[in-house]
Amino acid sequence: MGGTDPDLPDGVHLTAVDDLFAWGKEHSLFYLLFATACCGIELMQTGGPRYDVDRLGMIPRATPRQADLMIIAGTITHKMASRVRTLWEQMTEPRWVVSMGACANSGGPFSKASYSVLNGVDKVIPVDVYIPGCPPRPEALIDGVMVLRERVRRYRTLGLRDRDPQVIAGADDDFGTHPGKA
Amino acid sequence: MDADALLAAVQRTVPEAVAVAAGPGRYLLVPAAAVDGLMLRLRDETELAFASLMDLTGWDLLGMPGAEPGIAVGWWLESPRHRHQVAIRVHLPREAPAVASVAALWPVAGWWEREVYDLLGVHFSGHPDLRRLLLPEDWEGHPLRKDYAYPVAYRGVAHARDGQRFAAPPAAKPKPGGA
Ligand code: SF4
Q1: CA distance A89 to A104
Q2: How is chain B split into domains, by residue range?
């Protein structure tokens, strides 16, 4: 980020505004405290003392209006889908979505035999990073967040938003194909 | 009261009730029209005193060996005072099944009846607020019916993923033991 000009006094840096913003956003990804099924337990564990995502600047927020990141942790039913959409719409740009676990990616264990489960949350909101697993361990979630941070760093205030989803390593065909996956 | 005396006492109240053996126990199959009066007496007669409704559920009899196609509804009652239990069952037609609500007798039945209405389409007459419990209000059909057709889309969101055709799961194998 930026460079140091020898003519400037100590502690003064020159940088592009976007770089400064990106640095700030990347290190303060406040996430929405929202979970719908068993993956939520791993999300809580990730926020707990052992994995402690607070140290990455990830603080849970109780309202979407204060959140930058929505982690879809769990099964989304058709009934819940419109609520998920509403929550997402209440977040301010730039907003990010991580789809955590097989259910949120593609309906997972319920994709073939359930009449009421939405087969992938990307049918109702755009997803930035998909994390495979049923459930993914906290390490996998943190890995996904690291991938997302790359993307946050590339984000430009005046520029087109990179909307192609990213599938982190291991997200295999077991969980269905994902749009944007090569 | 032992089981025989209990069944006899219930049958005095509803002469049409038939005791049917099921596994280690028995249940009483009663005509749907008798449910309304029967339940009040089961709860209030001193020798019966079924103060507690332990469960209320329904299921589809389609394809069950030895059963007429229909919808079954069952009530499981318990008397904490006498420590006895009874299982009551009705068989309803698949077309517009209806039976009396017991929500006024045991308030706990309110949500159970809504669930059975939601998933099987049984109409509980006299229920104070018979709406779907689990599925959205505008859902079509009752999914625990065995001939239920899976939705193609709900509110414009396709059910299948990436154009794959969605097929209902294979029909369940008939269980031994009948209805
Ligand atoms: S992916 Fe697995 S662990 Fe996660 S919500 Fe679905 S069933 Fe539960």
Answers
A1: 18
A2: 3-157
Q: Per CATH, is B3-157 categorized as 3.40.50.1110?
A: no
Q: Is the CB of A134 under 6 A from ligand 1?
A: yes
Which stretches of A27-122 are DSSP H helices? 39-47, 78-90, 101-106
CA of A101 to the centre of ligand 1 (A): 6
What digits encode the pLDDT tens for the residues B108-151?
Answer: 999 999 999 999 999 999 999 999 999 998 898 999 999 888 88
Name A96's bridge partners: A69
The domain made up of A38-154 has a fold known as: Rossmann fold (3.40.50)
ipTM of the complex: 0.74
Give the model confidence (pLDDT) of A112-141 as tens digits: 778 899 888 988 888 999 999 999 999 999
- Domain positions in chain A are 38-154
Instruction: Provide the pLDDT for residue A14.
Output: 76
Helices (H), chain B: 3-13, 35-44, 109-120
Q: How many angstroms separate the CA of residue B67 from the nearest CA in chain A?
A: 26
Q: Which residues of A67-78 are buried (b: 16+ CB within 10 A; e: fewer)?
A: bbbbbbbbbbbb
